[in-house]
Amino acid sequence: MEFVDGRYQIAGVDVLSLVEQFGAPVYVYDAARMKQQYHRISKAFGGAKRLRINYACKALTNLNVLRLFQQLGSGLDTVSMQEVELGLLAGFDPHDILFTPNCVSLEEVNRAVSKGVRMNIDNISILEQFGDQHRGVPICIRLNPHIMAGGNSKISVGHIDSKFGISIHQVPHVLKVVSALGLKIEGLHMHTGSDILDAQVFLQGVEILLRAAVDFPDLDYIDFGSGFKVPYKEGGIATDIEDLGARLTDRFNAFCADYGRELALMFEPGKFLVSEAGTFLMRTNVVKTTPATVFAGVDSGLNHMIRPMFYDAYHHIVNVSNHGGKPRIYTVVGYICETDTFGINRQLAEVREGDILSMANAGAYCYMMASNYNSRFRPAEVMILDGRAHLIRRRETMEDLLGTQVELPALARPVATVE
Ligand SMILES: Cc1ncc(COP(=O)(O)O)c(C=O)c1O
């Protein structure tokens, strides 16, 4: 969001006009920003002879977002059969989709195989069963390098107590299964967690994976996952992607020379590509002063944006409609029937009832983690593409809430009609 000529804009579109047109609360995505991030990461790792970026679509699966990345030449990283289906619907070639599930049934794995997508296997039990049924299908193995990366415990997934991946110490076991079943391992993979605070730890993971790679002679690619951190505050920690890119590609190219084949270097960023492109807009319902706090209560809550309550995530909040107001301290809260805080003790331009507040970094893991808690509707999504705002998901209605419910005739009574 930029402040231009006394008004806030997103990609050149006036923010208040977006609320007028689409209502509040609403998620707004700047397509140009997503493209910019895609080009930035491609350039940062451009030293690799074969680079493949697979957008980790769990961050945001709106079909238009998927198509945007598909048109940019991205592949797709998926973790559920539904994400696979969405990717195919969006026009991705099955070969450009990597399926990286965790703790899913063999049945779901088999369904993904039947769609022709690439498989990433993260436990030995499934490796044995999958290998037995699909001997000719090349696969990728997700290894857990046992390093502690990631911004907090909920998003650190490469450590010894994590459920993800096959332990690096179990590589000898993997090799026995591979040899017994005659499997072709075309890829190795790691993902150590989101919001990596120290690139050096990530590079340690890279070294561990490369050491393991020597034992796999049929590799076509190595996928180092993601976790690239974007800033959530002004001056906040961010991965220096250009520096990491230069260091990692040098190391990777040297590895390929030793390995004797030009492998593809793969990454699967989610947050890096879409986090900063998103802004969440909401309306202030009430300003409530208690003996200790001034609350700004908005027409949203953890049902729409759970990251502050779930991860203690900081999302920058701005009063868009009264930017000239006197700065005061507010705790911004939602309307959900439990502690539901978006930001504590934030300095905002004076907030009046009706004011529009924005939350930044609302592209990744925001709409996707929204729910119908308190039986509220999920908000609309809007994309700004080529300078114009487009509705890309309508706000839910009562019909959406009722659509999956099955009424038992024995309990049914005539009720008031639903509007
Ligand atoms: C396997 C895998 N790859 C990629 C990602 C994307 O991570 P990020 O959003 O930090 O880029 C995740 C996130 O949870 C993941 O689990």
From TrEMBL:
It comes from the Bacteria. It catalyses: meso-2,6-diaminopimelate + H(+) = L-lysine + CO2. One of its GO terms (molecular function) is diaminopimelate decarboxylase activity. Keywords: Amino-acid biosynthesis, Decarboxylase, Lyase, Lysine biosynthesis, Pyridoxal phosphate. Pyridoxal 5'-phosphate binds at G227, Y365. The keyword Iron does not apply. Residues 27-363 form the Orn/DAP/Arg decarboxylase 2 C-terminal domain. Residues 33-275 form the Orn/DAP/Arg decarboxylase 2 N-terminal domain. SUPFAM superfamilies: Alanine racemase C-terminal domain-like, PLP-binding barrel. The modification N6-(pyridoxal phosphate)lysine is found at K58. Its EC number is 4.1.1.20. Substrate binds at R307, Y311, E338, Y365. Its cofactor is pyridoxal 5'-phosphate. InterPro entries: Ala_racemase/Decarboxylase_C, DAP_deCOOHase_LysA, De-COase2_C, De-COase2_N, Orn/DAP/Arg_de-COase, PLP-binding_barrel. Pfam families: Orn_Arg_deC_N (PF02784), Orn_DAP_Arg_deC (PF00278). Pathway: Amino-acid biosynthesis; L-lysine biosynthesis via DAP pathway; L-lysine from DL-2,6-diaminopimelate: step 1/1. Homodimer. Belongs to the Orn/Lys/Arg decarboxylase class-II family. LysA subfamily. Specifically catalyzes the decarboxylation of meso-diaminopimelate (meso-DAP) to L-lysine. PANTHER family: DIAMINOPIMELATE DECARBOXYLASE, GROUP IV DECARBOXYLASE. This is Diaminopimelate decarboxylase. It comes from Neolewinella maritima.
